[in-house]
Input
Amino acid sequence: MVCCKECIELLNDYLDGELDPKIATSLEEHFQDCPPCIAFLNTYKSTTKLCRETLKQVEIPEMVQVKLQEFLKHNIRKP
Amino acid sequence: MSAEDKETEERLVRELQAGKKEVFDEIANLYQRKIYSLSFNLTRNQMDAQDITQDVLLTIFKKIDTFQGKSAFSSWVYRITLNASYMKLRSRKKEQYVSLDDALPSFNGAGFQKEKIRDWSESTESALFVSETREVIERAVEQLPEKEKVVFLLRDVDGLSTEKVGEILDLSVPAVKSRLHRARLFLRKKLSNYFDEYYSRVEQK
Ligand SMILES: [Zn+2]
Output
């Protein structure tokens, strides 16, 4: 029987599907009997998703885009 | 990246190396958003990210001959971006990083969780939290030590594979995974603190 500590240490590999099937099964058995670990698993997954959605939205602002174009023109496209 | 994109990229690099300077625009178009977004997430400063993007583009242009194709071109570009970002960060006042150990869950002697764990995973869908969780995340990422931060940004935000991140940072796969896990635990803890506070306020009313 695995304990919570082991479960949490292995979460990353578990979610990547890279655990030995036997170990993955024992993790799943643990989750069935352990609401705190289920909550941990769910919020661990949500953290990754939420962080990605939040930080991925960085776009180059138009002002910066203009400056970049100018920079390229002067420093790289010189005849 | 699709095989086709990879081919285009390789062709562009070869042409630039052969002195065909006009293809640089295409290379810049392929990479400038990635460069800007990574450097912005590392510095959280628009001016700095702009400077870094310019530096990186110029370095690619000037040093293209030193690119030997031992690793992917994109890995080379990521490495230049990281170096430029670190130079910029080093010129700033040292920031205070927190210890990630504080974010580890606590266990009893038998290895079972001691804390009550609130499952807030459904709450993240609600528009109610968007601007506040954004703040929590931005602040937490800023507090991450560089080693963990960069792995987290490349793997979880940019969506690169574990192997690719290892190639860029010259780290083994287990090292990438352990840094990523520590970063995620820290970010999860910060988000949990936020939701715990929010719900205890609501429940008191
Ligand atoms: Zn458990």
Q: What stands out?
A: Residues A 4, 7, 30, 34, 36-37; B 113 surround zinc ion (CB under 6 Å). The mean pLDDT of chain B is 91. Chain B has eight helices and no strands.
